[in-house]
Amino acid sequence: MHLLVGLSGALLILIVLWEAFETIVLPRRVTRRVRLTRVIYRSTWAPWSSVARLIKRKKRREAFLGFFGPLSLLFLLTIWAVGLVFGFALIHWAVGSRIGSLGVPSGFGTDLYMSGTTFFTLGLGDVVPIGSLARSVTVVEAGMGIGLLALVIGYFPVLYQAFSRREVRIAMLDARAGTPPTAGELLRRHREGDNINALEELLRDWENWSADLLESHLSYPVLCFFRSQHDNQSWLAALSTVLDTCSLVMIGIDGVPKWQAQLTFKMARHAVVDLAQVFNASPVKDGGERLSLEELEQLRAILAQAGVVLQNETGADKSLIDLRAMYEPYVKVLSEYLMMPLPPWLPKAKVVDNWQTSAWEVTSAGPDSIRKCMLRNAPAEAARVAKPSGTTVLD
Q1: Which domains does the chain have, with CATH numbers?
Q2: Which tens digit of pLDDT belongs to each residue from 8-55?
Q3: CA torsion, points 51, 54, 56, 58, in degrees to nearest 10?
Q4: What is the pTM of this model?
Q5: pLDDT digits (tens, 9 = 90+) for 253-279
Q6: Of 135, 127, 36, 33, which is closest to residue 84 (Cα–Cα)?
Q7: In 24-131, which ranges are continuous DSSP H helix?
Q8: Exposed, middle or buried by CB within 10 Å (0-12, 13-18, 19+), for 310?
Q9: What are the start-end ranges of the E strands in the chain?
């Protein structure tokens, strides 16, 4: 009986240590389905998301969902600590509770208390191990307690640095593609700003962002649950917008090269497929159309009005449908699972970006008015730059 209990304690310790190693240290995706960490996240996210769906107000619902990522991380670390403490208590009991105490009766309760004070390196002195075996177990447990603390101290900065890198690019998308971001608005604003050629550089930056997202979120899947700073933004919406934009460029837009769009599309699609696999989420085949044929014609008209000519040759619509079929089933299932709404294709008639709002006002200055202001000031700015040094200009 004692041998069986001791082996159970040792097995529990090995399971917790291996889970901590895979979660914190191992820099790659773990394909093993039976995992303590995966069980914990699935068993906690299901009721958490169910409660969130009952919250009607969007801001309160997003705030409630925003607590899950950090709290689940703390809960996971607590489970690891409890598992190690309980496992070492089983080993102490298996070796015969070789513990000396000041007026405290021996038993599993005392073994558990001894294990807890040792793991957290309290060193109270009211209970002490007796015998070489019990002392060895105590030393090993104290070392593991310090080691887990060191891993956690190094783990948190890595997580939040990856989160910060992700959010910086998402925040920059607000002024470029609207809120929520849309592929149509992204193309329209670049054309209206006479900067359609900069789209290639933008897609190159988002290729790098997608690669960083793939690496960081596969290594630390808990980042997928971390919400963005604003309720109308998310990493999934940004990734979907980039894929939508690449799809439109790949079927043909006058003046925009396709090569970079293809590279960005491949990397972004790779990221969304692998992240869906992390959650074991099967792609949604019949989740409804994000872009119907009628809406596609509206999008063509909106873009044409802004000066963006989207190809309308034979087979262009079919090519767009084929491209969307490569990623939309995956972004849809992630949207449903993580409760992150997907962006529309069509830009809104009246867009109010996040930079235009504050707790006190909603400014009416949009991208068009800012551009007009810059154009009005352009002649004066040119005269100032061209002014010879040491001369006086009379108005």
Answers
A1: 2-154 (1.10.287.70), 178-356 (no CATH)
A2: 999 999 999 998 888 888 776 766 666 788 889 999 999 999 999 999
A3: 30
A4: 0.83
A5: 877 888 999 999 999 999 999 999 988
A6: 36
A7: 36-53, 58-66, 68-94, 108-119
A8: buried
A9: 99-101, 127-129
